[in-house]
């Protein structure tokens, strides 16, 4: 499968690296108006295009990974869909739920695969966790506890005009999106949220810490703690070991999923289940599911190639990306108003 990458910035270059190595797909072209992107295309011996329209017209790829700035996601996604070319749109699918809905509806009407680039869906740990849950080993799901707590170094905030200290630059907008997508992949749709925030530690205009309650369809409840100022290495990257740019802690968990028969800690993958009648007087059978660390970005490309060939249905489609935006919007509103906010997902 020949896959083009539009937007050769920070994450686009990671996709390019993975495509060059992939046994499942090849890099068709690089689409990005900058001279740096042209130089990279020349180095890799692939065509360089300044616009998506030109690339689709001159050398139609089998698929596109759209890693352009957020504001260009809807426009770029619609261009691929109109040309009938399957596309992974980097997260967030769009800047607004309305934009994401437009994209999803266009893809569904045209029967063109649209995927959202929440690459953690292709984590081997997440795949194993979804399998455990769907196997029924945990019984009926009751609750999920999640955590993304980490310490962003103080100089992280000294960029540009200091936008990371202001509204929109905090962990709810920057970090929560992948977490929400993971939680829904594990426990189903989130229908309502409650949230409260604090900026007491850093003293910035934007939150440094947030506590959330998630109401899942079917009555499952979840709590989630998010902080970028807590010296507690429990972010997904730090616990899963999937991104070696971070120091990793294989003994720490990000999520704990609880059912009526057993519970699973992720990503340590410690499983506890009652062998007989469930009771707090009895001991659980304890085991650990052995999962080798895999690069989710590489797995995402393998999956995309299978979707393009018609051999797989998208694991994280456009609708999943839309739902993630709806939940994150609801979290912001809940934090602002103190109300229980419906996500609009039924
Ligand atoms: N999945 C992840 O974990 C992850 C991580 C980082 C970023 N992202 C997402 O990826 C997207 C890109 O983020 P980034 O950090 O790589 O940004 P970036 O600014 O580093 O890169 C964006 C690139 O897009 C190019 N570009 C701008 N206009 C273009 C156009 N019309 N056509 C083609 N290319 C164009 C720019 O020249 C630049 O090279 C964002 O939506 C971001 O949210 C996802």
TrEMBL record:
GO function terms (MF aspect): nucleotide binding
Cited Gene3D superfamilies: Dihydrodipicolinate Reductase, domain 2, NAD(P)-binding Rossmann-like Domain
Classification via InterPro entries: Gfo/Idh/MocA-like_OxRdtase_N, Gfo/Idh/MocA_Oxidoreductases, GFO_IDH_MocA-like_dom, NAD(P)-bd_dom_sf
One Pfam family per UniProt: GFO_IDH_MocA
Residue ranges the record marks as coiled coil: none
Positions of the GFO/IDH/MocA-like oxidoreductase domain: 127-264
Keywords, in A-Z order: NAD
Domain Gfo/Idh/MocA-like oxidoreductase N-terminal: 1-118
Keyword field contains Oxidoreductase: no
Keyword Cytoplasm among record annotations: no
PANTHER family reported in the protein's UniProt record: BILIVERDIN REDUCTASE A, BLR3664 PROTEIN
Record protein name field: Gfo/Idh/MocA family oxidoreductase
Organism: Candidatus Phosphoribacter hodrii
Lineage: Bacteria, Bacillati, Actinomycetota, Actinomycetes, Micrococcales
């Amino acid at each position: 499968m020949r896959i083009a990458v539009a937007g050769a910035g920070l994450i686009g270059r990671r996709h390019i690296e993975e495509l060059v190595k992939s046994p499942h797909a090849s890099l068709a072209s690089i689409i990005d108006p900058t001279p740096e992107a042209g130089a990279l295309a020349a180095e890799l011996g692939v065509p360089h295009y300044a616009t998506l329209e030109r690339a689709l017209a001159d050398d139609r790829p089998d698929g596109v990974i759209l890693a352009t700035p957020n504001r260009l996601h809807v426009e770029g996604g619609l261009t691929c869909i109109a040309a009938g070319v399957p596309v992974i749109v980097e997260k967030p699918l769009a800047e607004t739920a309305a934009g994401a809905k437009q994209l999803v509806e266009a893809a569904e009407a045209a029967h063109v695969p649209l995927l959202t680039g929440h690459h953690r869906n292709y984590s081997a740990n997440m795949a194993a966790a979804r399998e455990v849950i769907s196997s029924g080993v945990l019984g009926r799901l009751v609750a999920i506890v999640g955590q993304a707590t980490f310490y962003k170094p103080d100089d992280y905030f000294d960029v540009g005009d200091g936008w990371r200290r202001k509204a929109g630059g905090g962990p709810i907008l920057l970090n929560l999106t992948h977490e929400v997508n993971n939680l829904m992949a594990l426990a189903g749709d989130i229908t309502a949220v409650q949230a409260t925030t604090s900026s007491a530690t850093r003293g910035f205009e934007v939150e440094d810490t947030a506590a959330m309650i998630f109401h899942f369809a079917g009555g499952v409840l979840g709590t989630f703690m998010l902080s970028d100022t807590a010296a507690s290495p429990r972010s997904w990257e730090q616990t899963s070991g999937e991104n070696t740019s971070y120091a990793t802690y294989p003994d720490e968990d990000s999520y704990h999923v609880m059912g009526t028969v057993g519970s699973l800690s992720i990503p340590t993958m410690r499983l506890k289940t009652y062998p007989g009648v469930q009771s707090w007087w009895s001991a659980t059978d304890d085991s650990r599911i052995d999962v080798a660390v895999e690069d989710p970005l590489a797995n995402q490309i393998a999956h995309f190639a299978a979707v393009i060939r018609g051999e797989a249905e998208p694991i994280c489609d456009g609708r999943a990306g839309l739902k993630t935006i709806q939940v994150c919007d609801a979290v912001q509103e809940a934090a602002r108003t103190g109300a229980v906010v419906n996500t609009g997902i039924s």
